[in-house]
Amino acid sequence: MIYKSALVFGFNEYAKQIALQISGEYPSFAVFVMTEAEKTSARLAGFEAELFDLSEDWKSIEERFNINELIVFCALDNDAENVFLTISLRATFENLPIIALAGDHESAEKMKSAGANKVMPILQITAGIISEMLEKPTVTEVLHDIFYEDSKLKIAQITVSKGSFVVGKHLHDIDWGNEYDVLVLAIVDFQLGATFSFTSRGHNHHIDPDDILVVIGYEDKIAAFSKAMEVSV
Known about the structure:
Order of helices and strands: EHEHEHEHEHEHHEHEEEH
Oligomer: single chain
Shape: elongated
CATH class of the largest domain: Alpha Beta
CATH architecture of the largest domain: 3-Layer(aba) Sandwich
């Protein structure tokens, strides 16, 4: 299905990165926000933006967009509001493709029950991770698959155990892609209070116990990688 229109609900950092990535793909694109501050921020970023509230009957959407060619992204800050928004949109538009962000896996399940076609749990990952992905041309296709396709690609956080073979090594010592078929986007430094180091920035981080690797890959590859990470040498 080729969609000609897209809407992003919300304009936090996640929503902004989504908007920046996808807006150029659609002849018709708009951002819907709940506050004047987000409206101003969206417009300063160059997007058409308008206010909405959760009691909308969505007639404005039906009047402006061809629902059969529309896709929406629900990316509100509050998970409960995002669930309510998803329920409202699904109740009005039975076949509308809805992609929702969720703060954790529990919220993700609620989004699915509410009618979202695709849910992305953002866990503890900052918006910089999405930005990081977009800076890598080879990863843009991966992000597209996560958003649009019914794939098993996932973003995961894997904590380095004390007995792991990677302890004491540096990020660049390991060929993550060829050896484990995963892409390491960043590492969270436990000793520095959850400071992110991005792999594309050239920092060859020393890996310590309790650091967190943020990786992207297929479910089975991530599972195998996670198991391998527990092995000591």
